[in-house]
Design brief:
Number of strands: 14
Strand order of the largest sheet: 2-3-4-1-5
Helix content: 40-55%
Number of helices: 27
Radius of gyration: 32 Å
Amino acid sequence: MKIPKGSINRIKIGQSFAEYDAALEDPKIYVHTPALASAQDTESGKVFFVGRRGTGKTAIRKYCSLNSDRTRVIVPEIFSPSSTLQEIDLLANTKQRPFRSLVSAFRRALQIEILSMWKDGHPGFHEVPKVIAEEIESYAEMDFDLRCLHFISRISGALAEGNDEQWLRENKAAKSVADGMKLLASGGLPTHTLLIDSIDDYWEGSDEGLIYLTAFMHACLETTTQIPWARTILFLRENIFERVRARDMESSRLETAVVGMEWNERQLLEVVERRLNRGLTAKFQLGGATWNAFFENPEESWKDVLDYCQKRPRDILIYTSNAVEAAQNGGHEKILIEDIQQARRRFSDNRFRDLGDEYAENYPKISVVLSRFYGLGNAFTFGGVEAFIRKLHNDAEVIRLCGSWLYENSAPEKFIRLLYDVGFIGIRAPGRSPKFRALGPQDTSPPPVSETTDIVIHRCYWDALDLQDMLVRTLPEDKEFGRIGIIEDLPDGLDESEYADTIELVTSSLKELPTGPAGAVDFEEIVGEVIKLCFFRVLGNVEEKSRSFDGKVIRDWVAANRASSGFWESVRVRYNAVQIIWECKNYGDLSADDFHQLSYYMNDVGGRFVVLVFRGEIKNSYYAHLQRIVTHSKGFVLPLNEKDLFIFLRQAKNGKIKEDHIQDRYDSVVRRLS
């Protein structure tokens, strides 16, 4: 089943931020995950829904609001207090009076908020316990934050004045209200749920704010566990939860009520498919059929998206939305590999910015440290990490902006753990794949770190940082970050000077070479050198392939396509081109026979992509031959001339590693064949 013509232009993925996503008004758009099931299950005992940004916390809050008329959303601002009525040191111990006073104040405020919700369905509230009636009449109409401040001021004031009688009265008020609320349930009451979201909107990260939040979490748990018909659900970012867990001696009590916002591959695919189907009258099946209908090379394209996203629905939606937009701008009837690749850089830039912002609370200006990886390799040995840290210590800007936390994490083991905890790198043991951290509450047993450990930067940051596909073992001490340049091994063991000299020699040889049979062997040699010098990062194991034609020995070149991104990756995926054939013609006018013989190179083993290098200009008559190869051999021939070779050589000499030119040459041929 094919998608109807024009369907791409009707796709509306929706907003990747749940706060602004109108699509979430449709219950059919939701994916039913274990976290969503826990939120719906009033008997689950789960109170804290913890995950990184973009893992679906606010979406669950919206779903709960849509599917129950006994829910209320509150967004507290109390966690940025401008002052506190107790010394911070006195509040630090979660078992002592000052901290328990905070818990009591928050618990009372939460209980009254639930009573306010109950009152909406019982406007007369006759024959209720006296304590309930008094609480409703006195405090139900107050703003939640003001109510919290009111109770905190009263109980803290009594404590500060040493008025034990008043303190006991205030401290026991929350329990008295809870006992009254239990009596209300004697006739049977449906569960009333408070949904507490967007804590980080007003979170300033101070010690006072952290203590207030810790006390608030204990109050949420006590309210939920002690009143049968009352429930609180708190949605919290995992990095904030980690700070609470690090300071709270009683955090084990909270952890029993935690749900992690984890996603598997099937659920992430369903997130996208439900949105792709929205604009269709006849909808595709979920589970892969929808994706297959909309995307070229669906298995490869899905793997590409999944590998670049950290198993977060927001990442998947942003990446897919960018690809859809690229397809719409290109007038495509399907989302092509090029659309996926065009979306990749934009997505990578977005993720890198978001990571720095997400963890700025824990590690101020961490984006400055992460930016120092720019242009380096995508993997580091333990020794490479040590060299990187030494260079950070010699970077004045890094020390000025990040010294407050960097010095504490300067040991390689600690620095690696920090990068792992924020999701920037995975840890790779010898002979194993890298392990990246989960999305929910932090794994309590991350991989061990030793001198045999490598780190691998997550793929979603490769494009934003222009990382090279290589393992960094050391870094030059005498060069600043950003000026280190290409640090991978150059072809044939050349150093930078020898590499530049070799490019100059090949360039001058090409300029002086005459066309015709006499120079054919030299031209073949020059093309081979261009492949080795200009494409060594993506095309490896370059070998000559000799054959006889009309009594003459002709040499072509074959290279292994090992690209993991960019133009050559798209060629490998679209044409199964694990091997690239380079055909060399030292003359300017091509004949039908020249094109005809290229078809014989194409097969299912090596692939169906051939580069034809000649000395002339592309004529209009050539496109008919190229189209015939597309139609009959399901392959593609990319014609290049000596002007293109000169451009490749110049770019290589200047250290440019982008693929704009060859991509443009390919696109121009595709447009003529369309």
